[in-house]
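Mods, move this if it's the wrong board.
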Amino acid sequence: MLSSSSVMLRRFYCVGAATSSHKKRLVYLGSPQVSASVLDALFTASSAPDSLFEITAIVTQPPSARDRGRKVMPSPVAQHALDRGFPSELIFTPIKAGEESFLSSFKALEPELCITAAYGNILPTKFLNIPSMGTVNIHPSLLPLYRGAAPVQRALQDGVRETGVSLAYTVRQLDAGPVIACEKMEIDDKIKAPELLEFLFSQGSKLLISELPSILDGSAKTKATPQDESKATLAPKITQEESYLSFDKKATVLHNKVRAFSGWPGTRAKVLVIDPKTDQQNTIDLKIITTRVHDNNEIRNGEKDDIVFVKGSLIFPCGDGTALEVLEVQLPGKKVVNAAAFWNGLRGQKLKKLRSLSSH
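Not the wrong board. Structure tokens:
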């Protein structure tokens, strides 16, 4: 799967060229599972009798240790390509896209167009100069909003009700190229990041397939709209340190964060478990899985740090007199359970929220 010699690649390319010289040579760059769905759409479109392109090569992140067994596995995109019978010698896994050995092999393929979708590596100018028709990226936001590594997560964290997916040319500056097309959509306040990511990339692949003819005949370059830099916002990468919930914030803010950080890194709360018989106290790290904003303020019996159980939910008091209903939780090393199962497992012990949380 790693880069093979340019000689072998040239030989493979020449063999393929005899049968499909009229088709544009497309290289696909992507890595996670959501990118595999885009690759699948491209495979299907390229196999159509009247297809204008062929997938010449795939570029993806190197194999990495995943899951509990820590077994080294190809990226989901590489695995999907192999499952579809794509030649392993045409799947490139450079650590960085600017590596000289990779760039020389890439150039030998004479790619005409590159398509990227959550590739996860910065593309240097040397790379961008190689495909004659440029590089087009599927970006899961309405550009110029939410440029960067975590557009879906940061949009959900902000509580947006409208989002979408954009098709844009890649330039050296992050997610700043001209926009070919975009699709808007309304979302509710329940959808979580993994579900929204999957949906946006699914819509993005349809948008790409419908726009490919104009991209391949060059007319997309003419119609693409430059982004308004004054409206640009950033969506920086999420860090593990951000995952703790701070209950001095409003319940809405915390609910949006739970939705945004679902999948990775998740959201956590430090909770005090008190045995009323012995006064013994124990701090637990509770992963908060599913929440909603509590709309009833009639639960104010007990101290303001008490966590109570009402109608199937754990109620966490939050800032400005608001409260968060926690519907599903997970203890370290355990399975996700609903609030009732967790509450029953306490066997009469009390819960309090800890006040000395990080302020993220």
